[in-house]
Amino acid sequence: MKIVMENVRKELEGQTILKDVNVTIDQPGIYAVLGPNGAGKTTIMHLLSGLAKWSSGSVTINGENPFDNRAILDQISFIQESDNFKPTLKVNQLIQQVQAFYPNFDEAFVHHLLKTFQLPLTKKLSQLSKGMTSALNMSIGLASRAPLTIFDEPYIGMDATARKQLYAEIIEDYVNHPRIILFSTHFIEETEDIFEYALIVQEGTVRLFSSLEDLGERAIKVTGPIEEIQTLAIEEHQKLAYNEFMSEAQLNLYVDDSTFEPPRSCQVKPLHLQEFFIDYTAKKGRA
Ligand SMILES: Nc1ncnc2c1ncn2[C@@H]1O[C@H](COP(=O)(O)OP(=O)(O)OP(=O)(O)O)[C@@H](O)[C@H]1O
Question: Cross-referenced InterPro entries, in alphabetical order (predicted)?
Answer without folding.
Answer: AAA+_ATPase (IPR003593), ABC_transporter-like_ATP-bd (IPR003439), ABC_Transporter_VariousFunc (IPR051782), P-loop_NTPase (IPR027417)
